[in-house]
Amino acid sequence: MRYVTDPNSSSGKNLCNIWNWSDDGGAIVKCTQKYLNSGSSVGAGVVSRRGTDVDAFCFADRDYFVSESTIVPRGEWTRIHDNQVVTCSGGNGDVPRCEIKLQLKTAALLSQTDRSNRNNRFTAEERRPGLFVHYGLDFGITGGIKAAFTGIVAVVVSPRGNINSFKNETFLEVHFTFETYRSALFDAVLFVGGSRAEYDKLERQVRLLHAAREVFMHFKTYLIDPRQLRKMHFSILTFIPLITVALAGDCTKIPFIDRYYCGRVINNSKYQMRYITDPNSSSAKNLCNIWNWSDDGGAIVKCTQKYLNSGSSVGAGVVNKRGTDVDAFCFADRDYYTNGTRRTKGQWTRIHDNQVVTCSGGNGDLPRCEIKLQL
User: What is the DSSP string of 14-34?
Assistant: First the structure.
């Protein structure tokens, strides 16, 4: 392989044709090409101080894949970001396959160190399971859960401090209160039920409910005791649809906050696009061949095609009330890319309500569309 650490440097000795140089497309930039032999690696990764930073790579003598279906011609460079790691494999006549992933830092002491001493504070780097308890807890359940974490130290969170079980027979030391905890401190959370009558009062559940919302919105793994769930005036379905697939042509309500997700497309390319807001509608006037219609594959559905000129956008995005919701898009007269994968002209790409598409490219280049979550 070859790699560079100085793209676009005035002192670069070579030229690199980088297909994904920017959101506007590829570019040929000055660089200093270096060699990476089979079985070797380069780049510091996630470190405590700056090290070697690889910016792009290629195979000079053969084509290679950068995803399951995207093949890059030999000698054409692929740019990577500082938070990415590339692993390439293949040989004996096979085309090399390179997998590009985010670099996630692994905590060396993840959930393995006893931090019950309050002066020995742990951080998000050493996060562990959290047990959220309330007055009237059932220690039989709580103790059993703690014991189940063999070799792992679970952290206890309560409303205000150390508490007794509902029978007052066991004292439970608490590490955080609902005011001092942060979701980032936990890799998983369990909400433990109880039996005491006061446990059932709604006013005593408000802080617990806030904790459940924060944990869920931060995409943490969680378990909730069914008894406690009922007292929180929620059904389990309330927590599930953070991002759901709405009916065609409609936006999706975001749970817990007064906002809606509506699919959005931004056309920064030099070419006209098409979009639809009514896929599979019985009153639609056209047909759309949507390659990713469902988990089972593509489908040809009825639709009403609309035009989106260069420099325009459509779709409400994240809003206070329902607006225009884009459900699919395409380029009718030329092939285009979606997140690095080439699509055939006239082939439609479906998007979900929580996604935004930004397309760029022009002057002979194929449009490149990036599909991201709307945050």
Answer: EEEEEEEEETTEEEEEEE--E
